[in-house]
Fold:
Amino acid sequence: MRTVMMMAVLLAGAAPVAAETVAISAARMLDVDSGRISERPLVIAVDGRITAVGVQGALAVPAGARRIDLGNHTILPGLIDMHVHLTSDPTLSGMQALRYPNSFWTAIGVGMAKRTIEAGFTTVRNVGSAEFADIGLKLAIERGTIPGPRIVPATYSIGATGGHCDSNELPANYIFDRPGIADGPEGVRQKVRELHRRGAEVIKYCATGGVFSIGTSVGAQQYSQAEMNALVEEAHMLGLKVAAHAHGNDGIKAAIRAGVDTVEHVSFADAEAMEMAKKAGTWFSMDIYNDDYILAEGAANGVPEESLAKEREVGLKQRQTFQAAWKAGVKMAFGTDAGVYPHGDNARQFAKMVEWGMTPIDAIRAATIRAAEALGRSDVGQIAPGRHADIIAVAGDPTRDVTLLRDVKAVVKGGVVVKDAMGKVGR
Ligand code: ARG
Structure:
């Protein structure tokens, strides 16, 4: 009753806010659907959403519209990264990271979110962070207090006791309970419900061991089929998509069988796993850039030799698997594991994807229209009516030279300039 009254007061007192119209222009535009470049585009957005896309001169600029001209550049939709950890810093790896409290990781997330959006990534899926920091970041970004991408938060990644999503660095007498840990079908169901209540919009879990965890084998499966089935069923019942971390083939197959939406890493998938993914419509999100960074900088960053040895086992094989999976026709979305390498360098992966068999436009699609599909969202990923006016600009044709995406000249998010055509960042 009280809430109803308060709402009535708020509604009565609210002055009608005039819709804000913006008109965004540039020299060229890449339509990621058709792959075609058009000249002199004009995009109209009202209150951050695109209402019309046309050609300057032909499409009218509504009276009173605010003009955003992105100069002699090519515009395309804001990029999407399906796999980031905004609260990680790769230069603080291994035991070094244990010196810092959770509040530190939340705080650096603010800076990492800024780097990410200034690099042209206007939407990210944050697939694992402590203390529900990704929820806080998302809310602060949405209020406009700090700059950053749209975040699809997973909160804690869910994992088996002692598995990749647990913390195994310390000897047993120093072990602490990680909130993402759950065991048994009922345990994982309960964990999904709990994270959902706390604001998770996607569920991430560890189906196999990994590179950066201590005492896990990259190839080994870490949840039983029954546990994965229960977890995915529960998440889907709540309307959440599920991302499974999986390097080893058995874990990949169990995850696909359980009905996950995306498999992350996918290093050792065989031809049968690829067929299963195709049949089930499962997306692969393969972080094939970071091997270069990890092997070059890992030791200096404090990554233990155990993890570096696992990386040497995984790196090349994962790229070969990527090539085979793409050739086999598996749906591919762009996910980089930023946080394992520096935030803001996300676009370095495009050239790797091209080197390993994609055309530039398909690599760009994986980070735009296709990633939106994998997220199940029709409000991002394309410059089209109804979608958010998330638009970036590069200096040339990225379908000829995909490395242009490493140097994003301008960023607009929801019709608001984050970085202008002179490369100047706002606020
Ligand atoms: N988070 C992943 C893990 O620890 C990173 C793997 C990075 N290496 C790679 N080649 N993709 O397993």
Remarks:
- Residues 4-13 have pLDDT under 50 and may be disordered.
